[in-house]
Each structure stands twice: as structure tokens, then as C-alpha cells.
Amino acid sequence: MLVVDILTPESNVFNGEVICVTLPGLDGTFQLLTSHAPIISALKAGKLIVELPANFNEEMYKSKLIHQTADPKKIEISIGGGVVEVTNNKVIILAE
């Protein structure tokens, strides 16, 4: 599993284990899975899609930026751009 931290200047939006995360890269959408090679990449405005190992629990994640999808194991987070860093199954997303 990946451990994902999604941070904005205002708050820590999400922190937890995920199956995968889909990101809006400058050259198109890309997905991160377990054992992904280390990267640093810029992100454009768009939606992050996070696939969770269990159904989304609103009580656990109270950020107004998180939106549940039709799939109870997926959430969306709208961003205005940012940067992602991946190392050793740890993903840090600094988003606007």
C-alpha cells in the first residue's frame, strides 16, 4: 500500500494508506501504485482520485475539499495545481 499525505497551505487534507492515487500531471493524468519508482512531478489544476482499501469514512476525514464518488472506496479532491513526491511507497502532495 501507499501512504499518502495531501497538504494545502491551509490544512492537512488527507493522510492514510491507499491502493492508488490518480493525479493531473502537466502532460496528462497519471497513476501511482505500490512500489512506484521515485519521482517528483508538477501537477496542474484538476482532480486527485484516491482509491481507499475500505469504504470512505466521513467521520475520519472532515476536510471540505474531499468529495465522495459513486464508488464508496474512491474520493476526489479538487486542486489548483501543485507538486507530488514519491519515495519508498510514501506520496507527498503539496497542492494549491
How does this model look, in words?
Helices cover 0% and strands 64% of the residues. The model has no long low-confidence stretch (mean pLDDT 93). It has one domain (2-95): F0F1 ATP synthase delta/epsilon subunit, N-terminal (ATP Synthase, domain 1, Sandwich). The N and C termini lie far apart (25 Å). Strands 1, 2, 3, 4, 5, 6, 7 and 8 form an 8-stranded mixed beta sheet that branches. The chain is mostly beta strands. The protein has strands at residues 2-7, 12-18, 20-25, 28-33, 39-51, 66-68, 74-87, 90-95. It has no helices and 8 strands.
Q: Bin the helical content.
A: under 10%
Instruction: Please give the CATH class.
Output: Mainly Beta
Judged by helices, strands and strand pairing, the structural class is mainly beta
- Count of helix runs: 0
How many DSSP-defined strands? 8
- Radius of gyration computed on alpha carbons: 12 Å
| CATH architect. name | Sandwich
Key attributes of the depicted protein:
96 residues, mainly beta, ATP Synthase, domain 1, eight-stranded mixed β-sheet, 8 strands, 64% strand
How do the strands and helices of this protein lay out in sequence?
Layout: E1 2-7, E2 12-18, E3 20-25, E4 28-33, E5 39-51, E6 66-68, E7 74-87, E8 90-95
Parallel strand pairs: 1-8
Antiparallel strand pairs: 1-2, 3-4, 3-5, 5-7, 6-7, 7-8
